[in-house]
Amino acid sequence: MYRFSSPLYPWIHGNIVVSNDISTIIVTNNLNNSIAIQLTWFPSKLKAAGEAEGQQGQTHFIIKFINEKSNKIQEHIDYRFVICDQQNKSVFEQGLHSGWGVEQAAYKFIAPGNYKAEVTINYILFTPVKPDVGKFNIVAST
Containing domain of residue 92, as a range? Predict the structure, then answer.
């Protein structure tokens, strides 16, 4: 883990984690808008954490929107990221505007089981589009 900060802009700071323990899935099929949705998570083997484990049990997600025509990151995407449990109940939701085309989220899986993650694209370049949904299956073990 590397900590970074900017001497010129004190509000810019954070951590960079370098690891080969990641999983990545890209959804490209049956999309209306030629924007591939890439979901990456760390650690790759999810473990359900107990309530008292704090941030140690968190899974970190990175969502990328890739323009399939140019093969570059697509900027200005309005999206919704949802994780649902085995009963299809939403346990995490994040809806944002992605100015850069790359976003992050973190969630702590409390119970083991099969989860579904969905990333829905609603706007591209500030224009409403026919929604695209990337669906991902995630398994959290004990």
Answer: 22-141
The answer to whether 79 touches 134, Cβ cutoff 8 Å, is: no
Whether residue 3 is contained in a domain is answered as: no
Tell me the C-alpha distance between 100 and 121, whole Å. 14
Please count the structural domains in the chain.
Answer: 1
Q: What is the pLDDT of residues 68-94, one digit of tens each?
A: 999 999 999 999 999 999 999 999 999
Q: Which of 121, 116, 118, 20 is nearest to 66 (CA)?
A: 121
pTM: 0.83
- Please measure the distance between the N-terminal and C-terminal CA atoms of the chain and give it in whole angstroms: 25
Q: What is the mean pLDDT of residues 16-25?
A: 83
Do the domain assignments include residue 84?
yes
